[in-house]
Amino acid sequence: xxxxxxxxxxxxxxxxxxxxxxxxxxxxxxxxxxxxxxxxxxxxxxxxxxxxxxxxxxxxxxxxxxxxxxxxxxxxxxxxxxxxxxxxxxxxxxxxxxxxxxxxxxxxxxxxxxxxxxxxxxxxxxxxxxxxxxxxxxxxxxxxxxxxxxxxxxxxxxxxxxxxxxxxxxxxxxxxxxxxxxxxxxxxxxxxxxxxxxxxxxxxxxxxxxxxxxxxxxxxxxxxxx
Length: 226
Prior knowledge:
The protein is α+β, with helices and mostly antiparallel strands. Helices cover about 30% and strands about 30% of the residues.
C-alpha cells in the first residue's frame, strides 16, 4: 500500500530542520548501501551517529507515535532510527530494493523492513528532478511531495530516485516493522478501520459498529506477527 501522510511537520518545523540539515556534515551515501545498491547510488547522507541525525530522527519517531493515520496504516511494531539524505549536482539512486533486515545501531535488535518511508524536507520548487519512483502493480508511481509530507510504501518495492539537476533535495528515510507482515492484510485492516472511523463519525450509535470492530480486532489477532 502506497499512502501519503500530509503535514507530519509544520512549515516552521521544516524550516528549523532544514537549517540544521544545511549546517550538518555530510558523507558519501554509498557508505551505508549494500553491495548492489552502492553501484547505483550517488548522494550524500548523515552518519548514523551524527548528532543532528539522532536529534531529528527522535523527533520523527515521536511524531509518528502521535499520528493516527501512520499508526492505522503501518500498525508499527518497531521503527528503525530515521536516516537523512541529500541529492544535488545530478545525484540519483538507481533502481534497487531495500534490504529485508536492518540492525538497530548499538543494539542486538533487528528490524524487518515491511514498510519504507520518505519524509521530504525540500519543497518541489526547490529542485528539479529528484522524484521517488515506486514500481507497483498499477505501474510506476512518481512521488515528489511538499516539505513536511511523508510517503509510505511496501519495503519490497523496486524503486529509484531520479537525478536532481537543480537545487538540493533533503529528505529523511526509514523503515518500519509492522505487527502485520503481509502488505495486503495491512491494506485490508486499514480499509476496514477507515470504514469504522467514518461510520463512527456519521452514526456513532449504529448497530453494526460493535461487530465490525470485533471483526477488525479478530483479523488483527489472526494476522499479527506477535
